[in-house]
Amino acid sequence: MIAGRYARAAKSLLLLLPLLASTSLHGQAGNFAAPEAPATQSGYGEDLLPRDEKDRAALLHTIAFDATVYGMSAYLHYEQLYRQVFDRGSDNYTGFNRFAHDRNLAGPDYATFKVPNTDTLYSTAWIDLSKGPVEIDIPATQLKYFTLNIFDIFGNPSNLSNRTIGFEGGRFLLVPRDWSGTPPEGVRIYRAATPQLWILMRAFAQSDGDVQKARAFQDAVRIIVPQGIGMANESGILTPPPPAPGAIGYLRVLDYVLRADGWQPGEDALVSRFRPIGILGDKGFDPAALSPSARAAIESGYTEALAMLTRAKSQLGEPTGTGWMKVNKGVYGFNYVRRSVINIAGLGANVREENASYTTFVDGKGAVLDGASSRYTLRLQTPPPVNSFWSVTLYDAKTFALYPNPLDRYLVSDRTKGLKVQKDGSIDIRIQHKAPAGGNWLPAPAGPFFVVIRAYGPKPEMLNGHWLPPAIAQEQGGR
Q1: Which listed residue, of 173, 185, 376, 400, carries a Cα 20 to 30 Å from 469's Cα?
Q2: Tens of pLDDT, residues 441-472
């Protein structure tokens, strides 16, 4: 009886097989999966969007909002890439695979990116792996600290640094994610997340002697493009668009980036959802293909997302309870709000294991830091526990730039000349607009400002939260 039922079922299945084989998406034997989503814009059809005008506008608004939150970090990195790689009129134009070196410490006029440190010399290079691997050679050094901080186009960081490779240096082959070749003997593989990479090199410098050593290190680090690849100035056949303000300029760049660099594993469904606004269609992004109502909905979604991200800048990280935020840099996963907000505040955010940092815009009572109305003291009862060095740096809250002052002093650190340390080892930092009668003065503007503590090579007690910065205290008597 049982055998008979199996026989009848098998006969029924045989009758169905020709029908299954006749469908293009289920033609393979044993394929019981649902068909994949269409790979092109035209494959979706008109049912991709609601026909009701209000519903259509609402959906386009939402998609544009999400695309802005998702890709803003890539857009900001692309702005810098375009200046250095494609804009031949730019001051720091190099093309791909070449360094631009800053030979002096950053000051108020530093323009490469916002919120720079003034602890290290910077060098920047954009690497193109679309035509093959590129080698990086790092010399042995006696510098106190160095890193080649490598970012994918979305701002996800990694490091070839004294923390990760030691002070002996080495040779490293940067390869695309799916590369399967064999590196030369003695060369280690660095597998990149995207074909276009930003290298932000930092070399410790404080004294004149340090600066000379850092410059020598800059010159000794080499980018080697294998023979036959050439010095790339383009990525494949794609035409890189110039960055431009507004939703249209943003979406042109996002479309280029996704075509040139792809996206993280696990993001296929999210990125596919951007197609109704013209991203990753059969042709490059074309605003002329958008109706006036669609364009208005997309503009409003972009504007709303950008406003939300901008408002969130002052709440970076986790509150410590003393006004400071512990900035969770560099580890984003699928948290696109964090990724975008941190990169809006400033590019080059590294992982905490390399540089633990804390930011505050307020004093210990939650009042906005303002040099026009108040004087402050930051008392470090125990200085930040580090293996390398620490610094307390002040920035203008309106410009996110270092504040110009008569002393040309933008930070107080464990290397500040004439640093006054109390008998118990504590350090008082006076933060105010006018010079105090004495002490460690960190000049502030006559207006709002914010402060960043950076700890290079943080020790475990900093990483595990046992050390936290104390509140900035407003001094009695106003200014």
Answers
A1: 400
A2: 999 999 999 999 999 999 999 999 999 999 99
